[in-house]
């Protein structure tokens, strides 16, 4: 699961283009985002962050949200060129600074019951040409300032959801060899297909999909594994699971009682690893797009839950800064299972966006855990979550470790092994 | 002086269009807005509200603000279609609700020293087709929620400024008979000329203009009139001035010590009337564009400072709701002098936007007064301002009462009369 787009509303991108985005399916996406993603409640306010370039979707989301009875829809739009103006013109000492007033306001609104939607679609490489020191400082300042709002989301106080709009800047990166209108059309088709909008009744298709994910969750929860053992090329990793962990995926219910789908699309089931119990080595199977930088061929060694060595053939400096964000940034906060046959994996597209790419492969996330991935977790305090092995951090970064050769065993309390994945598929 | 665009950041409009807006003069406008309008200080944050359609100017303002040493520039962009989606789709009971979390956050940011820029340019008639009851309720809720931030601006705690971008929606209204690209080019030329960007050194031109306005202020302050007596077609109005009032205009200095130009453009000198001392009748000389409704041919009777009768040939229902916003909405908060020969008056254009139209004619404003229009006013408490005759309200709405036949006398403490205007010009 990702909330990376939720954590940095001030670093989105672009300018609105009509492009070749099919308006019928765009409207369906808005309807699915509102009814399935958020399940917005009558009278509930909505805070909606998006790049300016995603305005066509923002507008349709506003229409569907108000039709569903939303109180007030407040879009917070960001612009790539304004963000880049900062990196090219601002004084160096200003990068430790964030819009705390805006994030504190959001936290207050969530505290009063507002729902949260993020529309992704900014250029994933927006900041790749900028000074990595300045980028890291700005990201850290943003993460700290955003924390009160982020905790409402990771603590699942309210219904929230992320979906995506196929902006031109994103499409150019995904399909660099196509003319822009074709690139946008291809990306739009991929986004719409992954978001399960192609059938006659997308809302019903999501109900069926959620039921399938629920069956996987029940099987895993029934086994209550102590650990998962991942094997594959460059990978031999044992991921201990937190005490009282619960597998989640698809629809889930926030503390406010609203059942929502935090990610549109989603193909994963996921839970909380034990922050002190990860051993072995792991090789990423896809590049990681982190805050505008592409990190390639990550290889990491864990001992007693903590990263003791981390390398990458590209973007290693950003990787090192990322895992140095705080103590918890070197430990796991999530483990997720996705079969190699998932539709997003089969599309063969590298989206450079976690919302999609994490649904193409099994993955782990460094940083903050999700309280909801414990039995009774949403009513637990931070200290109890920590004692059960839940990690805490200002970051939550997913990266892909699964592929067609991935084998996974579940290790039971008695030390027995149960095949979970073989050759990248559910065993 | 207007802060009407500052008070409703959630009701702006549009989509970005390159149009035929000259990029060289657009960049000059951004530079003037930052250096003359705001005079942004090194390390100072900037909150910038604008319609999405004004994005080309937002981007240039961000560049110039960062070059001048701004800390963090945070744009809050609004979209006409999202606002209209509310009116067409939202539940009736939701209109008494505003984004208090956002406005409270802004107030907190101003309290910590952030500067404030508003870019006007939304379609002035955006809400003219909507239910006036819903519009009035939403405006009232916005005004209440925005009040903590508004008080930082009317109290002049921080440097702030409004300028304008010639959006297509605005241009279509001003030049309904021209094709859109020509309408945008015409409006852009008018905005740029009014903003004094046509000479070789706009920043120096503004210094000279500010010096001229300062000479008028000094002459008026030297006389310390008790009242002004306006005569013209349909008008015979005596506007008592507040005790210890001070004439302002052009550049002025905020409590944070920064000298800024709150309105770009500006041609007026203005002060605070006495809320209990206005007598007679007055006829508006131009239509008033208020929250998306055009109010035409306003005629008002004052007695002991309060409106006892108000009529209009069009939009009278909106006028009546406006002056019923609260007790102070029926009393004056500002009186301003502008010669008929002002460049904006001579352009002959009705802009449907107070920032421009108020600089074409003498005007009065209903509602909240400006504390800075008292000698020592920025350090006075609300009670002292009230005792001296300063009005208090959630609204501040300027409307035009001057024209080529306007005569004004200043009435001195001893009852003598001094000619101030004759035939619409300084006497």
From TrEMBL, chains A, B:
Cofactor(s) listed in the protein's UniProt record: Mg(2+); Co(2+); Zn(2+)
Coiled coil: none
Keywords attached to this entry: Aminopeptidase, Hydrolase, Metal-binding, Metalloprotease, Protease
Domain of life: Bacteria
InterPro entries membership: M29_Exopeptidase (IPR052170), M29_N-terminal (IPR035097), Peptidase_M29 (IPR000787)
Gene3D superfamilies: Thermophilic metalloprotease (M29)
Family stated for the protein in its record: Belongs to the peptidase M29 family.
Name of the protein this chain belongs to: Aminopeptidase
Species this chain originates from: Neotabrizicola shimadae
